[in-house]
Write a structure and sequence with these properties.
Blueprint: E1 25-31, E2 34-42, E3 55-56, E4 61-62, E5 83-88, E6 91-95, H1 97-101, E7 110-117, E8 127-135, H2 141-154, E9 157-164, E10 167-176, E11 179-185, H3 194-198, H4 208-220, H5 233-246, H6 266-275, H7 288-300
Parallel strand pairs: 1-7
Antiparallel strand pairs: 1-2, 2-8, 3-4, 5-6, 7-9, 8-11, 9-10, 10-11
Helix pairs in contact: 4-6
């Protein structure tokens, strides 16, 4: 009896440089009847952020957060815990993993393109977390390329939904370079009505001459957006503090700058601002250890 032909498994694409090792979501991108295997990788990183742990100063040990029942004051094994939703004060409806898995949506495994829109039609308030959307195996490359190149020519942004971290999120997919960028969009009920929120601000009829001077200041301080000009000076200061403590140095307290009061003469302040030389983005004062840290950061990239 002849052997049944074995279906060739699609060859995975080698790990792309600059991406996290594991996708945040993996499934299929679908445009009508065309689909391809894709993965979503975070387009941002927090690996350089300072993260502190809680330490017992008496022993130098990192403490453990032990779940405790507030009524019995007894520790509870984390593996026995279930999820609950509060329906009344102190009353919960309980769910186990199997019951939650019963809520199955197609978006758990498929990112289905539902609509194409102009980028300008999406208010910036709705943009949330960016991801890089890449094909996961060689068999997906052709369909992925067709979708990407058609979107580039059309100049549109695709909208679709995907289930990530136990929530369905609206995604905006746009072509970038040779691939696709997918950004989660906040849902309608997650965004505050800004017209309502800002509507109560008193509106004063500003002096025309003052507006003219302010416009000249804006023009004077204009320039291109360059992320390299802006660093997190607080993070840099924290790294400097950590390095000083690691070396056993005593840390000097920094005196807080006095708070500035309201401008007494607005016209005078505007005129002085106009004559002032536009300052470059001032970095925080850096010690040698911060410079070394920055060099390490650059080398990792």
């Amino acid at each position: 009896m002849p052997r049944a032909k074995r279906k060739d498994t699609p060859r995975p694409i080698a790990h792309l440089s600059g991406l996290t090792s594991r996708p945040a979501w993996q499934g299929h991108l679908r445009l009508s009847l065309v689909s391809c295997a894709v993965g979503l990788y975070r387009a941002t990183t927090s690996k350089n952020d300072v993260s502190f742990n809680l330490i017992n100063p008496a022993t130098g040990n990192r403490i453990k957060m032990v779940p405790t029942d507030p009524e019995t004051d007894e520790p509870v094994d984390r593996s026995t815990l279930v999820k609950g939703f509060e329906v009344d004060d102190g009353k919960y409806v309980l769910f186990d993993d199997e019951e939650l898995k019963a809520v199955k949506l197609e978006t758990t495994r498929t990112l289905d393109i539902e609509r194409f829109v102009d980028a300008k039609s999406i208010d910036r308030l709705y943009w949330d977390t960016p991801y890089i959307l890449v094909p996961m195996d060689e068999s997906a490359v052709e369909a992925y390329s067709v979708i990407q190149q058609a979107m580039t020519r059309a100049g549109k942004i695709a909208l679709g939904r995907v289930t990530m971290h136990q929530r369905e999120r609206l995604m905006a997919i746009e072509p970038r370079d040779n691939g696709l960028l997918a950004t989660t969009l906040r849902m309608h009920d997650e965004v505050i009505n800004t017209a309502e929120a800002l509507g109560d601000i008193p509106h004063a009829k500003a002096d025309k001459q003052m507006i003219d001077i302010a416009e000249r200041i804006i023009e004077q301080q204009g320039g291109a957006f360059d992320t390299k000009l802006f660093t997190d000076r607080y993070e840099d200061a924290l790294h400097e503090l950590i390095e000083e403590k690691r070396r056993g140095h005593k840390v000097k307290a920094v005196r807080e700058a006095p708070a500035k009061g309201n401008v007494v003469d607005l016209m005078d302040a505007l005129k002085k601002s106009l004559n002032k030389k536009p300052a470059k983005t001032a970095p925080a004062p850096k010690a040698d250890n911060v410079r070394k840290f920055e060099k390490k950061k650059s080398a990792k990239r």
